[in-house]
Records
---
Amino acid sequence: MDINKLQRENIKNLRPYSTARDEYKGQASVFLDANENSFGSPLPQEEAGESYKNYNRYPDPLQLDLKDAISKIKGVPIENTFLGNGSDEAIDLLFRAFCEPAKDNVIILPPTYGMYEVSAGINNIEVRKVNLLPNFQLNLDGIAEAIDENTKLIFICSPNNPTGNSIVRTDIETVLANFKGLVIIDEAYINYAKQRTFIQELTEYPNLVILQTFSKAWGLAALRLGMAFASSQVIDVFNKVKPPYNINQATQDIALKALQNIETVNDWIRITVQERDKLSNDLLALPNVTKVYPSDANFILAEVNDALNTYNTLVEQGIIVRDRSKVTLCEGCLRITIGTPEENKTLLEAIKNI
Ligand SMILES: *Cc1c(COP(=O)(O)O)cnc(C)c1O
């Protein structure tokens, strides 16, 4: 598989921006090459703790310290890792690097995460939709029919948002083995899943791109930090196209600190999975809840008697869930994020009283 050939023509020929730090990487005592402020940053001293000393300097464009720490947790080498300003940056880069506007197309599998289509629209790329089957699994025949010689990307979200289920592993492998473009598996919710990540399959499939994020299980949605794992050829393309300093120093510092607290994150994951299964059972016992779909994520999709009325009544009590009742295959459904045990109890009581 030739990743080079998949690239857009202008990207293939692009000479990337060369930063001051690309041109001189060594140790020195006087750096006067990047027009930074050598006096320092105006952060108050007490806030400018040990790691906040160098905010007057541009950050590492390749975030090697942070990638090294992530590599120790994920087992993925640094050259197979890209960090973005949220997963959304990686999604956008996939379009910008691999899809020729007004010519190429991508395949998405509704109901699914909304950003794939928005990002395609921004980049003027045709979106071909192959709905999931009623059991929320892949329509492999439909996907095969939708592919043509201009199809560059297929987005598979697993566990899927908003349905919550994992996609059958062998079906994903079928797509990976037969499609000549990139297969993106969005694993934003993988920490809550019984199914294991596809990270171990990276060496087998040069066309595999895995997206993960710090926004969900890691509890750092505000940081805007997403990960993409792929063959080094794909990562090299990302690094060529991304803005030079796409991950700021504060994000790099804070993420490094957070990675030391993995025990807390694992505790939260355990509690969330327990609460998810408990809330699913408790909701199903209510007469106004007609269906709760099995979930591998930190949310559940529940079909209720009158979705709009349920949604509005919850809003009146200050409880906000996501109304998905107009979404294909999710008719009459609400998407409910698993909160703290206390929050889940509050939600359950509120629905019981409708
Ligand atoms: C929440 C979510 C993301 C995370 O996006 P970020 O930009 O990293 O916050 C990615 N994919 C899916 C399917 C999601 O639901």
---
Amino acid sequence: MRKHETYAQQPHIRIITGACPHDCPDTCAWQIAVDERTGRAVDIWGHPDHPITRGRLCGKVERYLDRVYHPERLTRPLKRVGPKGSGQFVPVSWDEAIADIAARLQQIIAEYGAEAVLPYSYAGTMGLLQGEGMASRFFNRMGASRLARTICATAGFEGLTYTLGAALATDTEAFAKARFILIWGSNTLTSNMHLWPFVQEARANGARVIVIDPARTRTARAADEWIAINPGTDGVLALAMMHVIIRDALYDADYVARATVGFDRLVARVRDWTPERAETITGVPAARIERLAHEYATTRPAAIRINYGLQRHAGGGMTVRTIACLPALVGAWRDEGGGLQLSTSGAFRFNRNVLERPDLLQGREPRTINMIRLGDALSLDPARLAQAHYRPRPVDPPVRPEEAGPPVKALIVYNSNPAAVAPHQQAVLEGLRREDLFTVVLEHFQTDTADYADYILPATTQAEHWDIVKPYGHYYLMLNRPAIAPLGESLPNSEIFRRLAQAMGYTEACFTQSDEEILREFVEAQTDPVFEGITWERLVRDGWARLNLPQPFVPFADGRFPTPSGKCELYSERMAEDGYDPLPTWTPPATRRNADAATVWQQGWLFCISPPAHSFLNTTFVNVERLRRREGEPSLWIHPDDAAARGIREGALVRVWNERGEVHLRAHLTEDIVHGTVLAPSIWWNKLSPDGRNINQVTPAEESDMGGGARFYDVLVRVEPLAVASEEPESTQQAVSLA
Ligand SMILES: Nc1nc2c(c(=O)[nH]1)N[C@H]1C(S)=C(S)[C@@H](COP(=O)(O)OP(=O)(O)OC[C@H]3O[C@@H](n4cnc5c(=O)[nH]c(N)nc54)[C@H](O)[C@@H]3O)O[C@H]1N2
Ligand SMILES: Nc1nc2c(c(=O)[nH]1)N[C@H]1C(S)=C(S)[C@@H](COP(=O)(O)OP(=O)(O)OC[C@H]3O[C@@H](n4cnc5c(=O)[nH]c(N)nc54)[C@H](O)[C@@H]3O)O[C@H]1N2
Ligand code: SF4
Ligand SMILES: [Mo]
């Protein structure tokens, strides 16, 4: 008997349906069993009826209750007593904390203006309410600095949008119909496991599955074939595939004529991108590129799953833009089970104004800070602060230091752990250590970031609050109901901002609405046809609702794209206007800009990527002991040849460093990573790492090409046995500049 059936027979057990809040494409529907005698949640499982969840949660969220009831869960507001970063706090009452925080913020606003307050958040919860819902009302009313939430996906998202017009994608269920599946820069079994059953179904019907990745991930092992590629070179592979497809007339002339613009110019562009040339850059043998292009163009339906892993490079936006041209070229969008999936989020055409209330800005236009530049944003040097301003496109003018605005004097962090996840960690920590910076952190746990707070405010988890979650890996809108009462004195983010708003003297009615009222109003305010028939009552009853889209949803079968031209833009006028090459091209990683890979390697550098560890979700779950034990310890995958050249043996502690910082990791020698690249499964907590640091010691805070996106995987490091003393990191002035 399955869990829900077993529990349904126990009179004291209540079963509540909710939605996983995590930053994961799958946005699962879950069920939680609560013992009504104690009010305690006793079990959690995947909802058996949800079409994507299909009764299964991942190994992390199966342990969700360990996290909810973790002995170190924050249950009372805490006020700092020791020096910044020492992690010493005493409990205080909510009234005292809220009153003091409001007074400090008022003081800062009076002296420096509201832009001196910076909210900092990301996707600790993907819920619309506990995410930016009440928080943006609060910060809009205040006129605080705005935050560009770029740390994950903006480069690829922009690249995709230039090409297709919106983040629409092959339906997840439709992957079962594909006969050729290219998993490109995605570790599906780790970061998107609910796609896999559809991939398996396709294979049972004869589909071939190929993974393109610098690492032989568990997904690459499970697939039919692994194509090993040098990081940051996927654009080259795509250009060479287009070269072959056009040269051998394998493209879909009818679809191209009907549904694309710029084909002739694309033909001229890819003429020089021969497989032989591509081999020297990508490391993929020319013959393999030929075969890949033929298989892709001649097997139907053909689906591509790309994820955000391949766009964490200086050319990440252009890479996604280039790959996104492939399905139109071969007409793959015609078929159910053909096309491409990066994100389904573009289908959720929400009107968010009723939720986030931009009208509360009342015409003010506060500066926007790019979140990946947190170290610069917290600097008291106006030149660095100016660099932290959000400039998503090349045509956006640089900000002069005298235009940078006030220094950041207050930082309010929620749903994020920047001391561990943000790049250029030393700069971030230096900022967080400022004694004159007033920092408030809303959290479940005393994270690396919370250690630097003046106040830590205990927040509820998804088991304890209401929300609506918008997925990016399927087309079902999800409702989360609370299963249990808040633990200790913890409060939902929404309630914390509600109380802060009242203490600040914000009297608008939107600061007194309850969570359910807000969500109901939000659902009822949606007018786009995709929400037709989706009511609050229906969400409460069922827990989810498929968008009002045809099933199957084959987004571009008719050849119409929501771009300015109405077609798939192989040539994009809008890109030209924004300062980009209007045609697909290769924008090399910053680490290859000044020298080719061979030179980089000769000088002793290695490329370094740090994709998701299987048992963590970013830094969430690192403190759940069972999951941390399963992950082992912070490690570095290194090719045996690269290890031998450095005298590194299996299991040795190594020093991984560059001019930004260093971290100590345990070497794991393996041919599962391409030669010349190292891989550090991430993201560990600093304080749960043996040397108190993580891989973001070495990652750069500079932007990628589009959307101000992050460049986590575009970095060079030196690796050496820890025992060997060495010279200090060299400066960027040498032949190869770090990026
Ligand atoms: N278990 C787990 N699941 C997660 C997360 C997690 O931390 N843990 N994180 C979540 C988040 S925030 C996100 S954004 C999503 C997606 O997060 P992504 O970062 O897209 O994660 P992956 O799907 O693991 O894909 C990354 C893969 O891309 C490969 N890669 C790195 N650089 C390149 C490159 O230049 N080219 C190619 N072809 N491949 C490259 C890596 O080796 C890795 O296998 O996953 C989410 N799901
Ligand atoms: N080196 C390296 N760095 C990376 C990446 C990488 O691949 N390599 N990946 C990047 C990517 S893709 C992303 S998305 C970012 C992720 O960065 P973050 O979004 O900061 O992700 P988490 O580390 O999971 O931190 C989320 C925090 O929010 C808290 N939280 C969760 N729910 C709630 C809530 O309801 N209320 C409150 N107040 N807090 C809550 C959790 O306890 C957790 O500490 O990291 C980026 N950093
Ligand atoms: S993290 Fe992803 S796979 Fe795991 S339960 Fe949540 S949505 Fe599902
Ligand atoms: Mo992410």
---
Amino acid sequence: MSEHDEQVLARLDTYRAHDAPTHGGRVLSYVYDSGLAELDALAGQAAARVQAVNGLDPTTFPSVALMQADLLVFAREVLHGPPATGGAVTSGGTESIMLAVLAARERWRQTRPGDGRTLRVVAPSTAHAAFHKAAHYLGLEMVTVPVDPRTGTLEADRLAEHLDETTVLAVASAPAYPHGVLDPVAGIAAAAAERGIPCHVDACVGGFVLPWWEGTPPWDLSVPGVTSISADLHKFGYAPKGASVLLVTDPALDRARYYALTDWPGYPVVNPTVLGSRSAMSLAAAWAVVTRLGAQGYAELTAGVAGVTSAVRQVVDGIPGLQVVGEPIGPLLAVGTDPAVPDHVQVDPHAWAQAVAARGFVLQGQPALTQADGTVLARTTHLTLTPASVGVLDELGAALRTGADDVRGQAPRHAAAPADGPTDLPDPVALARAARETGELDLPAVLALIETLPRAQSARLLVDFLAAFTAPPTGRA
Ligand SMILES: *Cc1c(COP(=O)(O)O)cnc(C)c1O
């Protein structure tokens, strides 16, 4: 490597020094560390070999089709899809969900030509934001059905009440991200099937860990009425970011996600996913990881994750003032305040997350949400356990306990409702500048603000914040 090349990489290293650690189990969201350095190295090598390939055209680059086929066969087997199950390898859960929603919308329109009614996606309120985003992009109405704040899920009948003629898709999560709780997949799928509505199971986070998790009720493509499923390779598939699987059991529904165009003077276009030209690097990396691990490798990694999850659950159960929400199945937990203990024993989950961060572990704060029926999902702090958590279990457990001790009895922070409207709000641009300069962000304050403000307003603040945080420096005067 030339000296100049070294300098380029050294500069990247200085940028990377700002990042949260991706390995070692200190960040309990965003990253899914298998703890196997050789697996990461293999993924990197595989990615490098296809660096110049364009995934746009598998007829020119058949390796793309071959790797994708291997991944789809593996996913179909572990998720119990019937033999005719088709699908795609996408860039991530959001794209898999986008395509599932698109296919359902297109199928609805194909079978009811000329019907211009507003169409809907019906999901529990805990369904991932990606469904809201898909509905937004695709001109659909997102109907969120309240879940029981105690359990984090709902009876299938409650969701079934909202399924109507204009519903293109019913959704169940396995598990839902916020609380790690499984929806009643069988009940929701049966209710949808009865009405001729497709049912998508969002197993983005669960898809490559629940197949080996003990005591899980049926949730995959073996359940009658489930027509599609999303499972992220870049979560518990342990592949680098940029890979997810969408499986669709009905070939007509599967075809409906494609986009083809012959109505322009360029090359004939047929895109199975959202992008045109696309990297094959994340596909090859995921393919290498899955091929190397196989079902046996996933079973072994899952055993470790299940053990550490149950140990962390015991730690949290033993902390006065906190409680796990509902009955999570899988490696995700949401922790909230235990309302049954006196005020001076209660622990605010966001203050707790901040105290635990000071002790070296990054947890993820989730704001309270008022549902359509007025019930409130309390604020929580989210933890995702991974194989890397196993090696730091003692340290993590100690941080969770002593972090709670640090803040027990403190009054929870709430943002004041802005008396004078927007002029009273913190300036998101100033917040972003401060965060960029100090590398620190007062997350509990941000979350409290989100809980207080009308949703459209808090969403706009987030946009202003991120735009300012990522803005390129302004040019020279
Ligand atoms: C992560 C996740 C998604 C979205 O996936 P991205 O890969 O972040 O786009 C969707 N649903 C669930 C349940 C998830 O955990």
---
Amino acid sequence: MKRKAGQDRSITQNWRPATRAVRGGTARSEYGETSEAIFLTSGYAYDCAADAAARFAGDQPGMTYSRLQNPTTEMLEQRIALLEGAEAARTMASGMAAMTAALLCQLQAGDHLVGAKAAFGSCRWLTDTLLPKFGIATTVVDSRDTEAWAAAIRPETKVFFFETPTNPTLDVADIAAICAIARDHGITTVVDNAFASPALQRPLEFGADVVAYSATKMMDGQGRVLAGAVCGSERFITDTLLPFTRNTGPTLSAFNAWVVLKGLETLDLRIRRQSETALRVAAFLERRVPRLLYPGLASHPQHALAMRQMSAGGTVIALMLDGGRAQAHGLLDALRLVDISNNLGDSRSLMTHPASTTHSGLSEEVRHDMGITEGMLRLSIGLEDADDLLEDFDAALRAVGL
Ligand SMILES: *Cc1c(COP(=O)(O)O)cnc(C)c1O
């Protein structure tokens, strides 16, 4: 019994989040290993030909091929579903594989999608370029404007797609209000929850249908692997997502799944600490730069909404300098501790200039429309001592005259 506790829903659903993050999904092999095993195998052998046939017919439980199932990735899928409060979850090779699968599995030519204007660069590419190429019409709206979502609905609208807080502008969308509009119109909501992670925000509790993740970010949390996940109802995952992913193959490797399993064990601890440090750094920087956005500060235009949806302000800060790209690059170059890196959600603090990196593929007009200026910087807070970060910023700000 104990050996299977991590996979027994009647037991795991009573566990609190931190316990789910450590033990959810764990299935021990005959060796009784305490830490989850890595099953690096592409295939599975059968005792007899009849067993192989029965397994392919779905009459016998068990695995057939690692594009479809793997014991290590299955443990991660159960752990993520438990953390999210979802009936089911499936992991993908990256966050973008998760976003692409979550959208394409349910859309077809003639359908219409409404997406958020402010979004991760590649998510905007899906909306603006990929979907229209296959005959799926798209409209982008300011995700903060709940009425705009309602106004964009057409008879053929099938999906609402947004992230909150957004990358990198930290706009906050009202999940409950947008999902309620969608539900009234039979529209499926897909929420990219990479920035908050299930430790701070669980969109399903606010009425979302599908939650998609870049597990590369907070879930791994230590900048090691790319990974993604899609969470939803058992029906959505089995009937809609799986036929798409089993045949197109955006499968997560067992090794990377194991790394994320280890990352999740410390998710709660890390995100709490990083959010605490982010709040301190944001309060410090706010006094030194012309404009700063952090959902945990009262100065954020949607602070109250953010605090209704999230249990803390998160680990990412956006700051806007008046001196354009030259001053923004100058600040980056003057930092000694914080790395210049376009990744985020790492245990190391990382800072990037979105206009010349993550969002450089978009036209200047689109960037402007999203609120990404030449003087904007995005800061992802890590696990270093807050005082060391404050000292690094103090010196770097002085170097650029702030
Ligand atoms: C990083 C990120 C993605 C893409 O995830 P990958 O793992 O890099 O493919 C999608 N959405 C958001 C909000 C992200 O931050």
